[in-house]
Each structure stands twice: as C-alpha cells, then as structure tokens.
Design brief:
CATH architecture of the largest domain: 3-Layer(aba) Sandwich
Number of domains: 2
CATH superfamily of the largest domain: HUPs
CATH class of the largest domain: Alpha Beta
Strand order of the largest sheet: 9-8-7-10-6-1-4-5-11
Helix content: 25-40%
Largest sheet: 9 strands, mixed
C-alpha cells in the first residue's frame, strides 16, 4: 500500500497538522511519499521521497498550481491514498484532486478500524465505518484525531516539480486571522470536562475547582453546552474542539460518539461515572464507579493538600 501525504506550508513554515499525516500513514502500514509547495529550507522530517513545488512559482496558494503539483506527484507515485489534513487547504484542494483522478473522497476521518475509515454522522452523534468504492481515494483527516506518537526524523529525498499550467484561476489575496472567542483547548495538557451527570448548573463550580487543582482547563460535553451551563467554546467533541491532552478527566460523561471522537486520543483518560456500563468505559484508562459530586469534592480536597 502506498500513501501520498500532502504537507501544508503557510506563512513561511510547516503547519502543525503535518505530523498527523505521518502517524495516520503508519496506522495504515503504508509506504509513504510526500508533496509540498514550500521552500527547500523548511522540509518535513520523514524518510521517503518528497516532491517539492517552489512557492515562489506556485504562490502561497493558487488552487490550480498547487493541484497541478499534487497531481504530478500522484502520477509518479501511483498511491492508493492521497491524504490531506481537514483544514482550509485540504478543504479546497482535496475535491479538486479527487475530481481530476475520478477517485472517491472520504472527509474528516477520525479513526481506523479493520481497514475501514471512521467518520462522524448525524451531527457527530453517531459514527460509521466506510471504505472507498474506487481503487484510489482522497482522504482528509480531522485535526487532532491522529496526534503524532513517534519521533519525527529523517531527511526526505527531494525531487523538484514545476507546474505545467499558468494558474489563471483564483489567487490568494492574503490571510486574516479569525477573531479569538473564548478558550482554545487544543494545547491544554490537562482537561477536566463536565457532562450531563453533573446534574445542574450550580454544580459546575465544583468541577471547575477540580480543574484548577489539577492546573488544567475546563471542558464540557454537548448536553452541558446545550443546557447553557457552559459556553460553546469549552465543548469537546465532533461539534466542538478536538483535543489530545496528557490527562483527560470526564466527570459525569457517558461517552456519546460525538464526544469520544473529540477526546479519544488523550494520553490518559479518567472517567468518573456511577454507570459502569457507560460507553466511555471502553476507552478510559481508569474508570471510577461512584457518585460524582461527593467524589470530586473529596478528590479536590486531597489535591489541595499536595
């Protein structure tokens, strides 16, 4: 099996999501090559062939020119999968490449299972496992779903490509950063999230106190946000933020699919729930079966003594 990884270069540097492509390809046990429109001074660290388009020629982003380079690399490698991150670069380029190749496209993949790709459906409340119906497929990966677990290394073998066309289509006018609204949980090392099992809004401060004692950030499940107990910017899940902290503490969260898809790649998961059959028990490293609020209060008190 062969995979062509489409690395992204933005504002003079490689984007963070590039390492997830390498981890995903390792999960496929695929032989990898890469393609990048960027500069030779900033190359991804991996072993393999890298097809490089000069950003001075292809521009920061010109969809026709960038797609041209990717299609040339695909012709040379004949990969089974061409893989993008599910971000604006991939959103625009992936369907262009898939259409040119007459290949299936599977978007926003969150997991792998028995050779099939896991994607969300029904607003993230359910998941489905799919397999492309064409010999070759274009994939996009949900950001944060495949955090790099190895150590990036190696120097790729570079082959330079030049576009065959002039790129007469749309051109990038520039970047404008989105306004920050609330908290970005993606970089938090510790997250303590409140679920429906908290019972009522008045109990949220008790969970927040545990988060503070662990020097972490406060998260929430969708029902908590829908009830107005916490703001949407703290929602973890397919319809919220995708996170992968070192420690994730789920307080009163049963584990709906849409929530699990947003935090299942946490390094260590502690779930506190009175229902031992709750779905979150399938991925939790430690499952505490108890009444939530008294346990959280006692745990917080002990942590404050340390």
């Amino acid at each position: 099996m062969k995979a062509l990884l489409v690395f992204e270069y933005r504002r003079g540097k490689l984007t963070e999501g590039n390492s997830e492509l390498i981890d995903f390809a390792a999960g496929l046990c695929a032989q990898c090559a890469g393609v990048l429109i960027g500069e030779e001074s900033a190359l991804p660290a991996f072993e393999g062939k890298l097809y490089l388009g000069d950003i001075a020629v292809c521009k920061e982003y010109g969809p026709e020119l960038h797609a041209d380079i990717i299609l040339q690399a695909a012709q040379k490698e004949n990969p089974d999968y061409i893989i993008f991150t599910h971000a604006p670069y991939g959103w625009d380029l992936a369907p262009r490449v898939a259409a040119k190749l007459k290949a299936a496209q599977i978007s926003e993949i969150t997991g792998l299972s028995d050779g099939k790709f896991e994607v969300g459906c029904c607003s993230g409340k359910m998941r489905r496992l799919v397999r492309p119906a064409t010999p070759r497929a274009v994939l996009t990966l949900q950001e944060g779903a495949f955090p790099f677990t190895g150590k990036a290394g190696g120097t790729p073998e570079v082959e330079k490509l030049v576009p065959t066309g002039t790129g007469s289509g749309p051109e990038l006018a520039g970047f404008k950063e989105a306004e920050k609204h609330g908290l970005d949980l993606s970089g938090a090392e510790v997250i303590v999230s409140a679920g429906r099992g908290v019972g009522k809004k008045d109990n949220i401060p008790v969970i927040a106190e545990l988060a503070a004692a662990l020097k972490g950030e406060m998260g929430a499940s969708r029902p908590v946000v829908d009830a107005g107990w916490l703001e949407h910017t703290r929602q973890v899940g397919a319809t919220g933020q995708v996170v992968s902290p070192k420690l994730y503490v789920a307080c009163g969260i049963s584990g709906a699919i849409q929530h699990l898809s947003g935090m299942r790649n946490s390094e260590f998961i502690v779930a506190i729930n009175k229902d031992k059959e709750a779905p979150i028990s399938e991925i939790a490293d430690v499952m505490v079966i108890t009444d939530l609020m008294p346990f959280v209060a006692a745990l917080t008190a002990q942590l404050k003594k340390i």
